[in-house]
Amino acid sequence: MTDPEIYPVPADLAARAHMDRAGYEAARIAARETPDAFWAQQARRLDWMSFPTKIKDVSFNKEDFRIRWFEDGVLNASVNCIDRHLPHRRDEVAIIWEGDEPTDSETVTFGQLHERVCRLANVLKANGVQKGDRVTIYLPMIPEAAYAMLACARIGAVHSVIFGGFSPDSIAGRIEDCQSTFVITADEGCRGGKKVPLKANVDKALEKVAGVKTVVVLRHTGTDVPFVEGRDLDWGVETDKASPDCAPEPMKAEDPLFILYTSGSTGKPKGVLHTTGGYLFWASYTHELVFDYRPGEVFWCTADVGWVTGHTYVVYGALANAATTLMFEGVPNYPTVSRFWEVVDKHQVNIFYTAPTALRALMRDGDAPVKASSRQSLRLLGTVGEPINPEAWRWYHEVVGEGRLPIVDTWWQTETGGALISPLPGATDLKPGSATKPLPGVELEIVDAEGAVLTGATEGNLCITDSWPGQMRTVYGDDQRFFETYFSTYPGKYFTGDGCRRDADGYYWITGRVDDVINVSGHRMGTAEVESALVLHDDVAEAAVVGFPHDIKGQGIYAYVTLNKGVEATDDLRKALVAQVREEIGPIAAPDVIQWAPGLPKTRSGKIMRRILRKIAENELGALGDTSTLADPSVVDDLVKNRAA
Ligand code: ATP
Ligand code: MG
């Protein structure tokens, strides 16, 4: 790979950021050497009903396995996100909502947020929801989704948010897995000018799974939907009747806050359980540090609340820090591909955080739709979800950010609760494609397949050797699966499942899932690097690379390539792409097969499902596995039909 360029910390940021270089180094050392004192001090950022005296109690070993943070502390997450801001910010905007149509938007103040959350919390209580009960939330990206999450938090119920794009089967599976008895949904959602039949999907799901006693239905689009007598309640009618005050439930720090199912990129989704104190702390701490958030700024994370990114940075982290958080119901390309940037101008967004998949899609349409907007309000950009190809990074930096905005590439997982590896705007020089360095308190190790620790500049499997407050506590209802999945591969360590390279400056580069690592004639290669070399080509929009059995090399490289609009797929182009990879990485990485792919199979959170591509490349068409979290299953049919022989 070409030697990456470095983008130094802008001088003004170095001078006034929450954390500068010296502060970062000091915090790293303090978190490592005096963890109890360090985290106790940091925990003061939350509002506790009873401040914890026990700070950290952790072992990753089988004999005495436990993960506990702030154990005797008592708090309520909704109080931290709402009530404590009321004395100073009652009339300030907590949520800006931008609808699917550019004509629809709305603001919600902290005072209004308080009243609406309390009313809904009282409706839940009146209908028998108790502390610890699981409540399923299936809503579009509207403020009511945040109200529903915070209403659960207020009374100690455990929410399980399901992305509004999921099918009845997926809903039923998730309801069954956590034995949820209560569902909150809406008549319909709107995405890209199309209606999403949320209530109808819930009705179908509830034909397949028993146990749900009550469904609260929000009238969002106002379309007529059937109500099941004795089961379905009208959100508007019920909340109007309810009291606007609801005393918050005192929660122990280790009481569950929510369950969230992972994206399903690698198999059956896992019900990740997060707790009240550690998770909320990590959400708030990282939101402030990573985005260098300052009061009064408008923060826009484009992720849906159905993903962990939406939980942590649209709702909990942002609101705990009294941010103005923007919720967008629509999609980046409706009504036009300028939509993101129009919304930035309309609401004067200061911090913008999105996914590489969205950027790559927008890049296909060129610079003009971006340049049609001002974007002068922006001060920081971020990405999350996948490795960002340096090519996309540079486009984001130069075109969207006009070369003046730092980009925070945040590596984390549903399991980690919040960002773990990320630049800090005032402390970290940037390298395109690298998530850079671990946050204070995050202890990384790269190990080889046998678990031997690799030092210096190296590449291998990414592990975390010690706990951080935002760590998941279990797979819901399956402590055994939790331990086996994350702590048994390399005993005493949390194994992320991701491959990673560390360069001579100590920067971390995620190379993709370890399962996706390709071994060509004994050379191990991450999929991300080969893909980045392919998308460097002007004609290529997106690429996904997998290994397949090869008689001589052990594994060969099979590349699926999506071309830019209007580009013709020719043999010459194929040759040019192979040449480009040879040049960028070396002959060893040259693809053996290139298949033109009009679309790639992605999860609904936008990640490429390489395990399906691998099966197609291996010609194991009967064993494609769980495809229920795919955004568009028809993509797979096309790839199978046009499989390169
Ligand atoms: P499942 O665990 O069900 O297979 P998933 O891993 O896609 O699904 P998430 O928790 O949403 O579910 O995604 C976390 C993964 O996303 C990480 O393990 C990593 O592979 C990838 N990822 C997230 N952010 C980044 C980033 N900034 N750079 C590189 N990879 C990233
Ligand atoms: Mg995962």
Automatic annotation (TrEMBL):
Gene3D superfamilies: 3.30.300.30, N-terminal domain of ligase-like (3.40.50.12780). Residues 24-81 form the Acetyl-coenzyme A synthetase N-terminal domain. GO terms for biological process: acetyl-CoA biosynthetic process from acetate. Acetylated. Deacetylation by the SIR2-homolog deacetylase activates the enzyme. Residues 529-607 form the AMP-binding enzyme C-terminal domain. CoA binds at residues 191-194, 309, 333, 521, 582. It catalyses: acetate + ATP + CoA = acetyl-CoA + AMP + diphosphate. The modification N6-acetyllysine is found at residue 607. Mg(2+) binds at residues 535, 537, 540. Keywords: Acetylation, ATP-binding, Ligase, Magnesium, Metal-binding, Nucleotide-binding. Pfam families: ACAS_N (PF16177), AMP-binding (PF00501), AMP-binding_C (PF13193). GO terms for cellular component: cytosol. One of its GO terms (molecular function) is metal ion binding. Its EC number is 6.2.1.1. Its cofactor is Mg(2+). Residues 86-466 form the AMP-dependent synthetase/ligase domain. ATP binds at residues 385-387, 409-414, 498, 513, 524. Belongs to the ATP-dependent AMP-binding enzyme family. NCBIfam families: Ac_CoA_lig_AcsA, PRK00174.1. Catalyzes the conversion of acetate into acetyl-CoA (AcCoA), an essential intermediate at the junction of anabolic and catabolic pathways. AcsA undergoes a two-step reaction. In the first half reaction, AcsA combines acetate with ATP to form acetyl-adenylate (AcAMP) intermediate. In the second half reaction, it can then transfer the acetyl group from AcAMP to the sulfhydryl group of CoA, forming the product AcCoA. This is Acetyl-coenzyme A synthetase. The gene is acs.
